[in-house]
């Protein structure tokens, strides 16, 4: 009886646990499989490379589908947003970890959590009604009118100033991903052993010098991981971007003009794709998005875990 | 010699000052948008937050009044159902990772879980469309629950693993020393000890999923009516916010801001709760 | 413990809902008639005391057609009737006809945002095509100034707004442009979703109206009701007979003064009617003739409720059309639509004939 309770119980429990946990694995595999299967019509027609690099997205006349405008849009928007958000996020992390008094740091940490939790649609709402009109009226339109008078050669590069386009999307996205870099950077900084700081102070370093010489070099891995995580989030961000990016099918090459990203084209066209090929093309875009996202996330996870192990080793 | 040292010191002093200013400025920039969003939401949406907002359903476009009851209730139902679906898998994965650290599956499980954590939510919606909507022959709150559930599984796995690994090993050792089998140790000692943290993790996953709209676009689909039956299309607050935001009706815009406020309030509450709950020291 | 209580309560409530036999009819499609559909849904739900509820989601005509074909909804709604290819597909896949029932008339109007310009502007088809082709780039372009001699047009750039989703409104608009501009027909064509040469995309009629509303210098195309409900300025368009007409109930109805085929699939754009507004269109409900084929229809009760609802739309519901500036069906059109509805069956039972005949 006791054997049953201990030995058998352990086996059963471990088995149940394993089966359920395999569900997680199954989820990832299922996602990859179903996306590939759904997209196979389009991928078969155009070839994986042909689809990814194709520039035409024409459901009506040509019935040609190429995802390159969306891949390019995603890359431009995410990388720009990351660059823009990196330094403010790092600054916030440094401030919260080193410069701020304890009570302020608590508040800042809470605000960071809050920022990460605010739903995408709320940012998008603000983007449509506040940021886009402001950018259009205060920045784009004056610039456009100036160029129309003084430098008409610039006009094709500028595009039509509507406020809905890459610029707005990048700004909104940058604000949204700040907490991811900031939180991880803050944690990395906080994990640096006290001895390093104290040694630097003992040698007469100023607070900034301590940061620069003793802390940041050790926290580098965690900060990098934070940046990758932020990039991963930026790539997948759907609704806030969809609401302000202008939804154009063309290659994004103007400063003000509209564009689209992989998630935004799916969100816009999925329920309405009438042709089977169109629907399959959208799922194929989803498959590409899955691949890109997996690549970035893998890298982020790898860097993060390596950093964690490094720190655990140091301690 | 002393003069050079003076100059060097002064320069370092100014650099220190400058960096402090830059860091402070950067911090302000980082939080700027959050404050702006909150401020605008308050100004624009507070007016629409009356009792009707919570008690009445949506009116046709162009007609004033009404509320978003169907969306609020729908959010709770779809999200709650999704949580129920996700709990067994997420918790199990977390327990496996934390309690059986040498298990051969672990590295793969961890990697896949972290990867899924960063997946765009819309892909979960696509999967739920293929797996639930098509076979069912229709949109439903249930398919939306599946989409959200898929989203929550990796979140739950990670937070569970994190919380359980904080439980001191003495707890486990004590149980084993008393002759308890491993499964008993986990279920009766480790889990209850970590209860506060576990609940926090669940709450946070719930709050995160409650704000998602993209995966529900082609699963839960939306509805102007209060719907309690999960086999029918249902509405949620983020879905409705999206639809209202891109519409041209002023009244709907105001309601969208109000919906944003409600969501804001909900996540603030959840975050505060999470912070309070995880203040326990071992 | 309390959580369990809440769960039980919910299951009980949901079960109660099921027991009460409330039926929910789900429809999806065009944003063009959304204000009207929402009104129908609201009124009908009230009329049946909540026993039959209607949930219509406006996701675009393309969506309406798609979900109709996927059979995830009871009825679809589209401004563009199903084309021959689709009808054939339905016949071959499901061994039944797809019925296109017109239930209202609408107009697509060119809306614009030009602060300071008071009177409605005049447009011609070719000029609209040139704007949307990107050939006319500013408001004070001679082509536009010529048509509007009395108006001081500002040198604002024209922000072209089109639909980002699959839209029957787009279909009507592009079909019109293809008829009046050969360049458009060759370069872009007609469809619910085309490769727009220029412009930004808004989602749904709502989205386009929203963008135009927020953007000085913007031009877009939306259904008349959206323009009116949001006080957007809209222009007059020159029809085939050469007259510049603003879209209103009279000019919309006049546009429909053309012979109607039995299956109601007809194009009203660039109408030959002298007083007809040139960008008018019927808007259609999509139904399977044999409802048992539709996986979304799960019982005879649902099939009946659906037919009753559609009959109501075609008869008493018509009174809600004109207050929302949609044209109501003429007696001839109504007869045709009801005749189509009468063909609906479910598991062999001639539900349509029975319900329409009453």
Query: Mind telling me which CATH architecture of chain A this is?
Result: Orthogonal Bundle
Q: What's the SSE pattern of chain A?
A: HHEEHHHHHHHHHH
Distance between the termini of chain C: 55 Å
- The chain-level structural class of chain C is alpha/beta
> How many strand segments of chain C?
12
Total strands of chain A: 2
Write down the overall mean pLDDT of chain C.
87
Largest interface: A-B, 91 and 94 residues
Q: Give the total of domains of chain C.
A: 2
CATH topology of chain A: MetI-like fold
Order of strands, main sheet of chain A, comes to 1-2
Helix share, percent of chain C: 40-55%
Give the amount of beta strand of chain A, in percent: under 5%
- The CATH superfamily label of the largest domain in chain C reads Periplasmic binding protein-like II
Could you write a compact summary of the structure shown?
The complex is a heterotrimer of chains A (315), B (282) and C (358). With 282 residues, chain B is mainly alpha-helical. Chain B has helices at 2-45, 51-55, 69-99, 106-117, 121-136, 141-166, 169-177, 182-193, 195-210, 237-245, 250-277.
Describe the structure in your own words.
Helix content of chain A is 80%, strand content 1%. Chain A is built from twelve helices and two strands, in the order H-H-E-E-H-H-H-H-H-H-H-H-H-H. Chain A has a two-stranded antiparallel ribbon. In chain A, helix 1 packs across helix 12 (276-314), helix 3 (68-99) packs parallel to helix 7 and helix 3 packs across helix 11 (262-269). Chain B has 282 residues and is mainly alpha-helical. Chain B folds into two domains: 2-48; 54-277, MetI-like (MetI-like fold), CATH 1.10.3720.10. Chain B is 74% helix and 0% strand. The mean pLDDT of chain B is 88. Chain C has 14 helices and twelve strands. In chain C, strands 1, 2, 3, 4, 6, 7, 8, 9 and 12 form a nine-stranded mixed β-sheet that branches. In chain C, helix 5 crosses helix 7 (168-180), helix 12 (300-314) packs antiparallel against helix 13 (331-341) and helix 12 (300-314) packs across helix 14. The longest helix of chain C is centred in the first third of the chain and has 18 residues, at 2-19. Chain C: InterPro entries: ABC_phos-bd_PstS, PBP_domain, Phosphate-bind_PstS. Chain C: Residues 22-314 form the PBP domain. Chain C: GO terms for molecular function: phosphate ion binding. Chain C: This is Phosphate-binding protein.
